[in-house]
Amino acid sequence: xxxxxxxxxxxxxxxxVRNVRAFQERGVLPAPQRHGRIGLYDDSHLARIRLVVQLxxxxxxxxxxxxxxxxxxxGHNLSELLGLEKVLTDPWSDEIPGHLTVTELxxxxxxxxxxxxxxxxxPEQVGAMLSRAEALGFIEPAGDRYKVPSPRLxxxxxxxxxxxxxxxxxxxxxxxxxxxxxTIAQRFIRLTVDHTDLEDSTGDIVREHLPELAEVIARxxxxxxxxxxxxxxxxxxxxxxxxxxxxxxSIARHTxxxx
Length: 259
Description:
The protein has two domains: 3-75, Multidrug-efflux Transporter Regulator, Chain: A, Domain 2 (Orthogonal Bundle), CATH 1.10.1660; 98-256, no CATH class. It has helices at residues 6-12, 17-25, 43-57, 62-73, 78-89, 102-109, 115-119, 123-135, 151-162, 167-195, 210-256; strands spanning 3-4, 33-35, 38-42, 98-100, 140-142, 145-148. It has 259 residues and is mostly helical. Residues 3-71 form the HTH merR-type domain.
């Protein structure tokens, strides 16, 4: 097994000596073997650093990485944990986030105004619009622009505004529908937990069930989306018929009456 001094280890792991020391201080990297005043690391340290860097790239904090490694060292299968983590963190949408400037957002949210009129909007009105859109998850600050996590969602909002619905009303319905979707998601998760026997008597996930839990979540993904889409389509059809059928019939009757 190869041995490394700290600078050699950092170079082999494509990181810095400072990071190696930080990993050691935070408990995610074992101490080196001491030979006099020299600390020598081996390939197990190199593998550990590469694992830590990989987990960091997936968004884990050092504290969470330490917990994962501790579980691994207690006998848990880290690959099972990471397999579960993948289905937990994989995005449920194939959308590619976009970026827009404040001017472009103004074009979308104030389509009836000319460029000069939009430029003359009070700063507090523009700020309130941006704050509300950010709170709803439509946009996220990104330097001198704004990141758009879901261009589709923003497009829906812009289309509703273009159809004549006030911006505040669009924000209100987005907030309400978001709450409705949270409730739907909670019901699906509760259904899964209640009927898969993955928890023990304390409500914790049993280690042996990690692969099964990952499989259940992966299967739940398309089923939940298909269910929500089908039921929403049916509900929209029912609501449209209920709300507008009488008006259409009334118009037809008046049209048929002799003048």
